[in-house]
Amino acid sequence: MSGDAKRESTGRGQARQDSREQVAHREQVARGEQGTREGHGRHEEHGTHEEHGTRPHPEPAKATGSRPTIKTVAALAGVGRTTVSRVVNGSELVSEKAREAVLSAIAELGYVPNSVARGLVTSRTNAVALVIPESESRLGSEPYFSAVIRGVSAALADTRTQLQLTLVRDQAERDQLTQSVAERRVDGVLLVSVHEHDALPGLLESAGLPTVLAGRRREDDPLSYVCADNRGGAATAVRHLLDRGRRRIATVAGPQDMEVGRGRLRGCQEALMEAGIPTEEHLVAVGDFTEEGARTAMRSLLERAPDLDAVFAASDLMAAGVLLELRAQGRRVPEDVSVVGFEDSYLARHTNPPLTTVRQPTEEIGGTIARTLLHEIENPAVPRTRLVLDTELVVRESS
Amino acid sequence: MSGDAKRESTGRGQARQDSREQVAHREQVARGEQGTREGHGRHEEHGTHEEHGTRPHPEPAKATGSRPTIKTVAALAGVGRTTVSRVVNGSELVSEKAREAVLSAIAELGYVPNSVARGLVTSRTNAVALVIPESESRLGSEPYFSAVIRGVSAALADTRTQLQLTLVRDQAERDQLTQSVAERRVDGVLLVSVHEHDALPGLLESAGLPTVLAGRRREDDPLSYVCADNRGGAATAVRHLLDRGRRRIATVAGPQDMEVGRGRLRGCQEALMEAGIPTEEHLVAVGDFTEEGARTAMRSLLERAPDLDAVFAASDLMAAGVLLELRAQGRRVPEDVSVVGFEDSYLARHTNPPLTTVRQPTEEIGGTIARTLLHEIENPAVPRTRLVLDTELVVRESS
DNA sequence: AGAGCTGGTGGGAACGTGCCCACTGAGTTG
DNA sequence: CAACTCAGTGGGCACGTTCCCACCAGCTCT
């Protein structure tokens, strides 16, 4: 950590106020409570603005209350509700004349069907939940999650399906999630980064709610999943290190209660065995997919095996931590130690030196789980999908 | 870009297949169509698994169809529907006896109120949309968005409100968003990164849908907003550079059709004027908040003003691009050129050298816009909130 | 010419909930 | 003791949609 940062207040000469008080004050303001609002060090350009006076939302009643319903449209078009419904839903059994009348009535009134009412009768919400556990690795520092979100969002954009994002940090949020699922606010669930003994997948399965995992729990996971070829990718990475003449290859592995973690470690060990190199216990340290955890793991590896000449880290973020720790201990990369990561996030291009890594198609994983889920929602009797996507070694300067 | 990466197929010895074909095939699989499924280079551990046979979702009919309704509960508890509703919604007008009967019936049946039906009658969905335009800066490479998402999610977790994430890339997705808004699938909208002439905010306002912006369009923006003190923060950054003895201070500004871009440039220029340094046109280049754009801008700055001795970049990501370009052109940071960024994302700690930057409370911005929106939804007559949060200079090694 | 089909149509019911309002019975008041 | 209050209760209705089914007109076929 380059944590020795000096800080100066922006407020230029004015005392830096207690940050807790500041937060509290802000919350009060955000809740609109009337209180002292002079706001030390913060500009309050607040208040009613002239144009709208005391009624800030322009004509909320009219805009909200008098929306045209299917009945209004039917009356204007001179047809029954059913005919309007048929036109809206693209049924063939409507005469050309009636269709035109309905369409022009819809255009005139600016009618948009109420999705909630529709959902009530069809028991479909046209929304899926994307669940991201934030406990172990934070959205933002771990690029994997962002990429998955992008892929999911893109795949969903083609359909009328909405994406409900649920970050799960603690037990309270976990409960809220199960609540949301029980309320049937979504037609299906996408789970990212599942741990082996997580109760949620089983819960979803027994609730009969379509569920697709990004990353499986086991090879024979009963739920549909899409994941990268972790074993194969890791093996390729280690073979690459062997090709570079490295023999003392250490591993910063991922959590062993996740298949990603286990799979990548296993692939690594298989490649070593293949080359006739015995697996040494003290050349393996388990990280938690965070940069800080990887630094700690790396530190312990250097103590246990000072003669190591290469490190395979089970994620780019961990590889970044490995690089920092190696540099802190005066090892040169790649001269003294080669480093390989896993994922090929944009992070890999920005480490120093740029990181050799195993590319996994993260965004495509996102897109594929989304499409798979939509398909399972559409057709509940379809067999489970199990898909393992190829990886690819990207050689840069760290090896 | 360290784009000169060599690539090897993971598939070890087998030919790398055409990637377009691969994608197409995957989509086919994801849609569950029956086709050739041998899957070159990809493992297909697919198919019905033994336990469930041809009916993979366990008892979907029962789980989906026979959920207890308020009527079921009422019957079991020996009360009317209204009483159950009252208990569920925490009304006081229920006898202790009835309440207990209802609660035990709820527990026995595992009753959860149907939020869709509830939404139909209350015309509330208990969901808000978070809209992130992805055209200019990608979620994932720009840490700002992730941090906002975290903040929003955390603030929403305390309530029963769901977060609908909408990434808007192109016009089609834009239309879908307006559609979604028209369908009233959300109670309010959070907008991030709005451009000056964006039609969406006005649309939302005239629709009477509560809307809060992260970052304003103008100082007197008619919509509620929460933003950082861009002008003040930028001025602090430049004053810091002046304190370091720099005099030829260049700026890589943000897009000038956004208030963030304009405000940070203006703060920068104000600080220079304060110090009696004339603003020079050729010391300003406009970037687009991407790393690549910043590199291009930096390149042009170095051509126009080779004697520059400091750069203020309007975002961390752009500062990272500036650092790369400076290094590529053989300038040392901070010896030859000082660099300051804006945001203090985790990125700033990982550049080389670590970046001096203006910290903005991004996650707090997310939390605040969420709370503000909830408050406006709850109480539509509340005056608009305008909140400018303080920034703070964080000094690291790049200056 | 009558029976049978078939494309086109619309009214009724249902989805599950909240809210209005009318009702009950016990307690309080004049 | 009658009138009156009031906490507690439940039935009916509405929310906006889809789906089932009954219906109708025009056509073909025996």
Looking at this protein, list some descriptive labels:
DNA-binding (chains A, B), 399 residues, alpha/beta, LacI/GalR-like_sensor (chains A, B), LacI family transcriptional regulator (chains A, B), Rossmann fold, DNA-binding, 13 strands, 434 Repressor (Amino-terminal Domain), 3 domains, six-stranded mixed β-sheet, six-stranded parallel β-sheet, Peripla_BP_I (chains A, B), HTH_LacI (chains A, B), homodimer, elongated
Task: Tell me what the structure shows.
- Chains A, B: This is LacI family transcriptional regulator.
- Chains A, B: Residues 68-122 form the HTH lacI-type domain.
- Chains A, B: Residues 1-68 are annotated as: Disordered.
- Chains A, B: InterPro entries: HTH_LacI (IPR000843), LacI/GalR-like_sensor (IPR046335), Lambda_DNA-bd_dom_sf (IPR010982), Peripla_BP_I (IPR028082).
- Chains A, B: Pfam families: LacI (PF00356), Peripla_BP_3 (PF13377).
- 2 copies of one chain form a homodimer.
- Chain A is built from 14 helices and 13 strands.
- The first copy, chain A, is of the alpha/beta class and 399 residues long.
- The first copy, chain A, folds into 3 domains: 17-122, Orthogonal Bundle (434 Repressor (Amino-terminal Domain)), CATH 1.10.260; 127-228 and 364-388, Rossmann fold (3-Layer(aba) Sandwich), CATH 3.40.50; 230-359, Response regulator (Rossmann fold).
- In chain A, the strands form 2 sheets. Chain A has a 6-stranded parallel beta sheet with strand order 3-2-4-5-6-12, sandwiched between helices.
- In chain A, strand 7, helix 11 (259-274) and strand 8 (284-286) form a beta-alpha-beta unit.
- Chain A is elongated, with a radius of gyration of 28 Å.
- The two termini of chain A are 23 Å apart.
- Chains A and B meet through strand 1, helix 1, helix 2, helix 6 and helix 7 of A and strand 1, helix 1, helix 2, helix 6 and helix 7 of B.
- Strand 1 (6-9) of chain A pairs antiparallel with strand 13 of chain B.
- Chain A binds a DNA duplex (30 and 30 nucleotides) through residues 69-71, 74, 79-83, 85-86, 89, 92-95, 98, 113-123.
